[in-house]
Structure formats: C-alpha cells, structure tokens
Specification:
Layout (H helix, E strand, L loop, with lengths): L1 E2 L3 E5 L5 E4 L5 E9 L2 E13 L5 E10 L5 E9 L1 E3 L5 E2 L10 H7 L9 H14 L18
Bound molecules: zinc ion (ZN).
Zinc ion (ZN) binds next to loops.
C-alpha cells in the first residue's frame, strides 16, 4: 500500500498551505484476523510545524483486505485540514515476463516442474542461443514433440 501522490494541507490557525510528499510519512502496520483472512492496516502519519508555531498532524489509514486487495482508506488531521485528499492505492508490482529459459536461470529447481512442451521449448531456446536453428514442432494427441 502506498500514498500515491503529494497532498496539500492547510493550517487551521493561519491558513498557510503545505504540500506533503508521501516520502515524508512514517508508516505503522496493524493486523487483524477476519473471516476472509488477514486485514492489514497501513497507518501513514506525519507532522509539520507551521510557521505560526502550530504543529499540524495528519494520518491516513489504508486498509488491505482481503490480503492483496485495496479495501478503503480514511484520513484524519489535527490543527489542519486537507486541501487535496490523500489517495492510497496498492503498489502492485508488474510481474516480470520471463521466458522458460530465464525462469530456469533464475530458479534451477523449476526445471523439474516443467511441462513436456515447456522442456522442449527450453531445449530449443538453448540451441537458438548457441546459434543453431531450432524450432518446436507441433505435436498431436501425444506429448512427444520434437525439437
Ligand atoms: Zn499556521
């Protein structure tokens, strides 16, 4: 879970505005076991001392539930108000796209769990990378393809 963008707060006492970068926030975690698994609360919080001397505090609680899914978030503030609402979102990492060959390099043990056609593809790729021409031929009902 991340706070996706800068947000703006305004001092309740003097009206000065401050742009808050998500990088400046601290984060705490809270876990709660619920019906569909673990609920994870991310509590982002920070404070800024205003030029008028007041300490402006803000806190965004973002909830992930069930695990991996964004549920909701809420923001609270003390001595200030939000000019732009902080937005929370899941920081999904893109799955790296790897060929069978790269998967094996990355995790040699995975060679043992290959489907027969994947193994043929791997053999073909090894030949190709060594300058040979190789292709996996179509196979029919049986799993006995040829490279
Ligand atoms: Zn102020």
């Amino acid at each position: 879970m991340i706070i996706s963008d800068d947000f703006v707060i305004k001092c309740d006492f003097c009206g000065r505005e401050y742009e808050i970068s998500p990088d400046t926030l601290d984060v705490d975690y809270a876990y709660d076991e619920r019906g569909m698994g673990t609920e994870i609360q991310y509590i982002f919080y920070g404070e800024t001392e205003c030029q008028c001397g007041e300490v402006l505090r803000y806190r965004i609680t973002a909830v992930e539930y069930p695990a991996g899914a964004y549920n909701f978030h809420e923001s609270e503030s003390e001595n200030c108000s939000f000019v732009t609402e902080p937005q929370a979102e899941m920081d999904y990492l893109p799955e790296p796209v790897m060929s069978v060959f790269e998967q094996i390099l990355y995790n040699p043990g995975s060679a043992y769990s290959l489907e027969p056609w994947e193994f043929e593809q791997l053999v073909a790729e090894v030949f190709q990378r060594n300058g040979f021409h190789a292709e996996v031929t179509q196979h029919g009902g049986s799993c006995h393809g040829k490279v």
